[in-house]
Specification:
443 residues, alpha/beta, 9-stranded mixed beta sheet, 49% helix
Amino acid sequence: MKETELYSVEAEQGILGAILIKPSIVPNVSGLIRPDDFYRQAHKVTFEIMQEMALQGESVDLVNLAERLRRAGMLEKVGGVAYVMYLGNVEATAAGVEGYCQTVKDYSKRRQIVEWARQAMGAACDMGKSVGEVENSMQDAFMKGAQLSEHKGLYNARALIFALQEDINRRARGEHVGVKTGIRGIDSHIGRMEPGNLVIIAGRPSHGKSALACTIAINAARAGKKILWFTLEMDATETARRIVSFLSGVDNAKFKSPELRAMTEEECGRYIEGYETLDRLGVHVSDATNQTPIDLWRTAQGVKAAGGLDLVIVDYIGLMSAGSQKKENRVQEVSYITRMLKNMAQALQVPVLALSQLNRASDKESRMPRLSDLRDSGSIEQDANIVMLIQRGSHFAEDGTVVYDNTATLDIAKVRDGATGTVKLDFYPACSKFLDHVEKKGR
């Protein structure tokens, strides 16, 4: 197919015709496509005029549309009254407008891809640049391009109004935007992890970061959300074992006994129910190691395109690689990684929940961790919408080993649109589960 054929006149006209049939769909359509997604200038201009009319409360009909185009000096440029009358006769339906928008958006993306490919060829043929420089520039172009195509990125005042109006309408219809953690104490502070959010759970080793991520993942999946979990520290088998242990309530350690002989008959029944439940959940797991932000992004895009995506979990930032974007030191690399994770969240329009280590300062000073303890980079705090710091108390056993308490304090230290504060949680290490804290009777 030639570049000049990368558009659909019928779909573009279908959108405009559908608006004339049902003008109230303008906010919804404005949330799906931008004027620049139209290939034909006449269609782009007409859509912009329709948006303006809707904002001003004017009836979007044939007569008013022709008059508004005339006043803007565009009527003859788009094809005159005959063009407007033709739009009124287009065989389109308001019910089918989302399909028309998807077609127009897809063609718009294809034209953008052609442009990126043209730029890539030019950069690759520039012998004045090293291969590394070419790779770096193309990775940045890929991420910026994906962000622009998936999420508009640039809004004028009109687009802002439509975006806000559509968001209010969705919430009024009861459509839940974002993902809840499923833990009441946390959700009362942060509400939901919203699309485009970068959420950080940070803690020292063995304090339960991965278990809390597992709890949130399974709670979200049970609520019907589609989850992509990058387990850079555990392999897929260990992750599956944790999930089924969580779902069944059977001690994780018993899964490792030969032929599950450590389990009672009742536990075996619960184990079977657990993996049958897992089979029904919308969970994808990637256990590939040494992943770069680009690797994560490509995988997430594939999962979203194949069946939808609501939440990405990254366990954990410290095991990620900057790849060809390798910097002078680890602080700069982590800054690059967190910035790219934030870009990924915005481009895919899903929350990204990433785990991070804390440095040893809180241990040495015997205090609760704080934001300044985030390891390797202050950019984690800067890029994140929400930062939660987990801490479990501990004591020394008789043999000198450290024993961690089965309660945890979660300091919700940063929330851009919510309330900071602390939440107490109960931890069940045998099945990697966190629950809202319940005070024991008699205490």
